[in-house]
What does this fold into?
Amino acid sequence: MNRNMILGGGLSALMISGALLSLVWTPYDVALLDIPNKLQTPDAQNLLGTDHFGRDILSMIMAGARTSLGVALLAVAIGLAFGIPLGLLAAARKGSWLDELIMRGNDVVFAFPLLAMAILITAVFGPSALNAIIAFGIFNIPVFARTVRGGALSLWEREFIMAARVAGKSSIRISFEHILPNIVNLLIVQGTIQFALGIQVEAALSFVGLGVQPPVPSLGRMLADAQTLVILAPHLAIFPGLAIILIVLGLNLFGDGLRDWLDPRLRMARS
It folds into this structure.
């Protein structure tokens, strides 16, 4: 286990633990407005200060991180649920019209920039957490389909796959019994990367008002609310921004370290 994996895992665990803790406890109620104590700087009572409505920023960050993680996790789940079967099918039918159809469909989705597609979907169907999940989930499908197809193609000519074919197993059965278990490491690494990207997408959509809607806390909307008050109360932008940076950095470092750990060739090259 390398330093990137340890550091990234520690940062990720810290942020995820805070998000999960917010399900049962936060220092203050995130829906509680305390106008007389608005824009308070960090002190012993409010460790990260209060916002323009007097809400505790630490509590808001904990709840906002939970929202971001939930959106990113569900979007990655959508990508895995549809991308894995499509990638396995394309690899099993390499060179056929079905393979071409799947891969050209992936190209169509990739032709649209992620944020542009997400903004388009949420603008058409309305701003909400569900539409943000759908938008990023659609983008994740070709990502995982390509990952699975690439990994599967390198296995189809291996001896153990040829033995399974001689034994009379169908392509579908071989794909799920022999191919998929051998590319799980690729999916884990890619899932970590997409998870981190999903947090950024959720924050970006909420920042422009197309993501999670009030009163649900969101790190992106906290940054948007801080824009006009950044000179008067810079802590309103610093702490939510720092939270996004730490969790994305942690996940990226963890994914990078996990890739090295699962791939002996990369581990030896960096040692």
User: Anything to note?
Assistant: The mean pLDDT is 90. Residues 3-20+56-270 form a domain with the MetI-like fold fold (CATH 1.10.3720.10). DSSP finds eleven helices and no strands in the chain. The two ends are 12 Å apart (CA to CA).
